């Protein structure tokens, strides 16, 4: 018995010694690791367009078993609505040294790690309202472990929050939790998370109430860093349900099964990708509407040129915003000759990659029909950006093509929905209106030469290349096509008398 106790006591002493040595080692390594992490974070923030954000490590207090770090996140010219805002946020990070941080041991996470970070947003004048909404719980907090192999694993939490005015809830949020894991230097990052609900109970400028509810949010992503330093991969976001009560009568628009799925790839410094949006079911005021989907794609985007243009735009954003605030339809700012040359070179570099932008499919489906629309534009590098506008557009647009397939039964379903919302309930009248709506649009399309009709489908096809347009099988110049469109638009204008 004494021998057993002696062995166990020796084991405890050995573990304690190892933990103490590991904690001492972590304390020595930690400053360099934090500096590295901050530098990586700033490199990623620099690549983000729309704001000028930097992260600073303002202080670090190190002890044997733990350390306390303070950070400042500084944002300048962040676009919020139609305004530019600048602010600073403070974070405190209580870091437990490895190899066995006590918080992980309590959670039965016994894999040795270098450190375990427990961070939280600090309360100050900027964040006090957020703390009030969250019941004085930090509005953003989480934990993150750093492995000896450089990997990370952690959880970010936004707690439940509620904003009330005059005793009535204006915003109610169930909270958000995101789990993320990454390999050394963030070469690969995977994340997942979700939120149960977010509710808005607002009043517009006319005093009309607006109630919006978003339910069952789920996020998942798998991203990898390229040699050029940007991330590619897949991200998916879904909402189980989104509803909005609109207008004085508070009629409800209900959408179920919303998805946003994106995928991107890199070929050297060129980026390609697509993003798909789906709505499984749309209902308005108790009436079924239909379902929809949309897919956008980008190909051959020169990331180096794009980042250079984004950096220039960011540097001039305050002036552009000020010009827009003065009512300028096309805000512009004076540029030096050096800036003009830099921007021109970046634009030419971008176009030299022959990028393509495409709405691959925009579809809408009702009970009796489904319609589709697609359009794609292939761009090319012009001889010069100083060419006259007509010649410049001809050289930049290498090819444009679009297809429209409009279902007459779908148009009839939408006409029936409109009639029902206006109070019509007679089945015979509804059926007649549904039939007439699709047929009438088909006749107008034929008479205007804007489309052809095949069975239940109204079709329109456009292809442009080398200065020539093929419109529904008729070949013409760009000028002839423009004249055709203008003539038909003029014919559609109401006449006086």
Helices, strands, pairings?
Blueprint: H1 2-47, E1 52-62, E2 66-80, E3 83-97, H2 102-106, E4 115-121, H3 128-133, E5 141-146, E6 152-158, E7 161-165, E8 168-173, E9 176-182, E10 188-203, E11 209-225, E12 231-246, E13 251-267, E14 270-284, E15 287-302, H4 303-325, H5 337-352, E16 356-365, E17 370-379, H6 389-396, E18 397-407, H7 408-421, H8 427-447, E19 452-454, E20 457-465, E21 468-471, E22 474-477, H9 478-491
Antiparallel strand pairs: 1-2, 2-3, 3-4, 4-5, 5-6, 6-9, 7-8, 8-10, 9-10, 10-11, 11-12, 12-13, 13-14, 14-15, 15-16, 16-17, 17-18, 18-20, 19-20, 20-21, 21-22
Major sheet summary line = 22 strands, antiparallel
The whole-number mean of residue pLDDT values reads 83
Q: Which regions have little confidence, pLDDT < 50, spanning 5+ residues?
A: 1-25
Through-space gap between termini: 113 Å
Q: How many beta-strand elements?
A: 22
In percent, how helical is the residue content?
Answer: 25-40%
User: What proportion of the residues form beta strands (DSSP E)?
Assistant: over 45%
**What does the overall shape look like?**
globular
Helix and strand composition category: alpha+beta
Question: What would you report as the Rg, rounded to the nearest angstrom?
Answer: 30 Å
List the total number of helices.
Answer: 9
């Amino acid at each position: 018995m004494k021998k057993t106790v002696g062995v166990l006591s020796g084991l405890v002493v050995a573990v304690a010694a190892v933990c103490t040595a590991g904690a001492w080692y972590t304390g020595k390594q930690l400053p360099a690791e934090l500096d590295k992490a901050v530098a990586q974070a700033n490199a990623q923030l620099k690549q983000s367009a729309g704001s000028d954000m930097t992260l600073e490590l303002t202080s670090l207090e190190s002890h044997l078993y733990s350390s306390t770090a303070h950070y400042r996140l500084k944002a300048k010219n962040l676009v919020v609505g139609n305004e530019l805002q600048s602010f600073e946020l403070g974070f405190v990070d209580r870091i437990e040294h490895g190899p066995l941080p006590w918080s992980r041991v309590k959670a039965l996470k016994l894999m040795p790690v270098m450190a375990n970070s427990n961070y939280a947003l600090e309360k100050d004048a900027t964040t006090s309202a957020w703390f009030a909404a969250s019941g004085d719980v930090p509005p953003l907090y989480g934990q993150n472990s750093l492995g000896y192999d450089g990997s990370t694993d952690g959880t970010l939490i936004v707690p439940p929050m509620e904003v009330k005015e005059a005793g009535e809830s204006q915003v109610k949020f169930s909270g958000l939790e995101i789990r993320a894991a990454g390999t050394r230097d963030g070469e690969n990052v995977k994340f997942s998370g979700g939120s149960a609900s977010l509710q808005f109970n607002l009043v517009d400028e006319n005093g009309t109430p607006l109630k919006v509810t978003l339910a069952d949010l789920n996020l998942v992503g798998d991203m990898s860093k390229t040699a050029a330093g940007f991330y590619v991969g897949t991200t998916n976001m879904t909402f189980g349900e989104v509803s909005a009560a609109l207008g004085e009568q508070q009629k409800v628009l209900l959408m179920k099964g919303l998805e946003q799925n994106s995928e991107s790839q890199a070929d050297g410094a060129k980026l390609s990708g697509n993003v798909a949006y789906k709505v499984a079911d749309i209902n308005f005021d108790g009436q079924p509407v239909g379902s929809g989907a949309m897919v956008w794609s980008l190909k051959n985007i020169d990331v180096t040129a794009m980042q250079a243009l984004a950096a220039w735009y960011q540097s001039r954003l305050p002036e552009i915003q000020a010009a827009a605030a003065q009512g300028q339809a096309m805000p512009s700012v004076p540029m030096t000759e050096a800036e003009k040359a830099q921007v021109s070179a970046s634009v030419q570099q971008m176009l030299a990659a022959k990028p393509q932008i495409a709405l691959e499919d925009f579809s809408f489906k009702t009970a009796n029909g489904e319609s589709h629309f697609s359009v794609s534009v292939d761009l090319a590098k012009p001889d010069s950006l100083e060419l006259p506008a007509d010649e410049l557009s001809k050289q930049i647009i290498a090819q444009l093509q679009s297809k429209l397939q409009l279902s007459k039964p779908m148009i009839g379903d939408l006409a029936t929905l409109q009639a029902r919302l206006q109070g019509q309930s007679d089945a015979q009248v509804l059926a007649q209106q549904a039939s007439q709506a699709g047929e009438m649009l088909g006749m107008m399309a034929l008479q205007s030469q804007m489309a052809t009709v095949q069975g239940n489908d109204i079709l329109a096809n456009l292809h442009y290349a080398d200065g020539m347009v093929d419109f529904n099988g008729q070949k013409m110049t760009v000028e002839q096509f423009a004249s055709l469109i203008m003539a038909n638009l003029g014919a559609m204008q109401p006449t006086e008398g």
